[in-house]
Each structure stands twice: as structure tokens, then as C-alpha cells.
Amino acid sequence: MIPTLSEADVAKVLKYEALIPAMERALAAFSAGRVIQPVRNMLTIEEGQRFLGIMPAVTDEAMGAKLVSFYPKNAGSQVPTHTAMIMLFEPQTGQPLAFMDGRLITEMRTAAVSAAVTKRLAPEDSRVLALLGSGVQAHAHLQALRQVCAFDEVRVWSRTAENAKRFAAQHRAEAMDLEAAVRGADVIVTATAATEPFLRGEWLKQGAHVNAVGAPRPTWRELDDAAMRNTLVVDSREAVLKESGDVILSKAAIFAEAGELFAGLKDPPRTATTIFKSVGMAVEDIAAARLVYEAAALG
């Protein structure tokens, strides 16, 4: 019998302390050409409302595929906007190893990649974090980024003010207006389903770092052109030029892939204002799933 791991099983064993370095290794391998992975195939079921993503990848250590549903129409309901399943194989023999719920893996690997990039690009001694968005990814990023930065102040903004206040009360943060939240922040996270830019480059302090993980469609945006003119790092050049409206519509120049940072091939000055545009990749899911499988096998 092939084991099936639930979200609760995943939550017991998947920890940021191991996941963040695993994401560094996976992305370094990807940028070095050691990963077989097509750009995600996103099937549009209902434009703007219902999508199904198909995401296979093969590395030396793991092989598998994720099916992920992205349903913006579920926002505000009891059903998550993202749900997923991952099938994991042994790459040397092709033997199926496990099925596992992929929702939490998607949530945590996204934040872990941002944390790994933040560790290399954010101002040294970063103290102020601004979370733009108050949903699942805001929560995950707060947890992951606290692994790499010691924040004295956490700010949160949401298009729905009540959601920001609720998040602030739960996480000892301060709910603020948008511009006030961004100005003076060392690290900013944009994690929304926005279709039009709301973060203005003029608000960013010199040397600030932005993790932009929302707006995952080629016509959707979170950042304006002024913000995108800063030093831009992406998870995959090929993927963002197909999937990211922030990159496509701004025609921003890409400085590096995250994997090139992790391999020591690219290194922008610490004083640069930096943007990390993340669209998410199958190699991240499969590497995280392998971590889960091995940890679960150890009991």
C-alpha cells in the first residue's frame, strides 16, 4: 500500500528550520540546470475564479507532481483558495512512495523561499516588517521570516480593514494604512490576489526588500513600475515571463534567479532596494514533499 499523508501528518513533521535550507538547495540545483521541470501548466476553468495547475519535477533526490487548485472565488468562505495533492516517486526506480496533501506544503514552501531570499537581500539588522495582506501567506511569512530576522515591529494592512485588525490582534502586530505600513519598513511582503498595482515604489526606503508572492496571473499586479525598477530577483526567469503580470507588464530587467544567489553566482549590494518576485515552482513542492516523507518514515 502506498502511504497517504494528511495535512495533519504534514504539519507534524514539516518545520521551517529544515525547510528553508532545503529550498536553497532545490533552487540552486534548478538554476544550475540539474532539475527537469516544465513551467506550470495552468488550466483556466473560469477566468479570474477557478484554475487548475499541473506541476511535475524531477531532481536527483526526488520525483513527483503536484495538482493544485487555485480558486479565488473561495475567498472569505470556509474553503481555502488553494488546495493541492502531491504524488512522490523514487527517482532511481520510479517506485511510488507516497500521496500527500499539498495545501500546507504549498503554504510553507512559499514562505520558506521568501525567507531564504530575505536572509541574503534584506538590510542587515532588519527590524520592521510590513505584511500587505492578512491571509494564509501573511501568517506563513511571519513565521518563516522570524527564522531569519529579529523584528521589533510588525505592521499589517489588508484591503478589508477588519481582517487586518483581526490579524494584528492574533499576532501582536499593528494594523495600519497602506502607505504608513510600507514607509520605513525593512522587509515588505505582498501576499494578495490584487489585479492592479497597490504598492508604490516611491514609498520604499533605500535598501528595503520586498517579497512579492501574490497576483499569480500574467495580467495581475501588486507592484507599480517604480517598484519593479529596483533590483529584481525571481525564482524562475522562464516562469515569471509566462505567469507574472508584475514582471511582464512592467518589462522589468531581471538581475538574478534566487538559485544564483544561493550558489554564490550573483550578489547585489546590501544597500540595493530589492524585489523578489515568486510564482512558485514544482521543484520546491517535490523537495518539501521528500522532506515530509523522510521525516514521517522516521516516525
Features:
single chain, 299 residues, alpha/beta, ornithine cyclodeaminase, domain 1, Rossmann fold, 2 domains, eight-stranded parallel beta sheet, six-stranded mixed beta sheet, 14 strands, globular
What can you see in these coordinates?
The chain is of the alpha/beta class. The chain folds into two domains: 4-106 and 283-297, 2-Layer Sandwich (ornithine cyclodeaminase, domain 1); 116-280, Rossmann fold (3-Layer(aba) Sandwich), CATH 3.40.50. It has eleven helices and 14 strands. It has helices at 7-13, 16-31, 103-121, 136-145, 161-171, 178-182, 225-228, 237-243, 245-250, 258-262, 282-297, and strands spanning 4-5, 41-46, 50-58, 63-70, 82-89, 96-101, 128-132, 153-157, 174-175, 187-190, 209-212, 231-234, 254-257, 274-277. The strands form two sheets. Strands 9-8-7-10-11-14-12-13 form an eight-stranded parallel sheet. Strands 1-6-5-4-3-2 form a six-stranded mixed sheet. β5 (82-89) and β6 form a beta hairpin. α3 crosses α4 (136-145). The radius of gyration is 18 Å and the shape is globular.
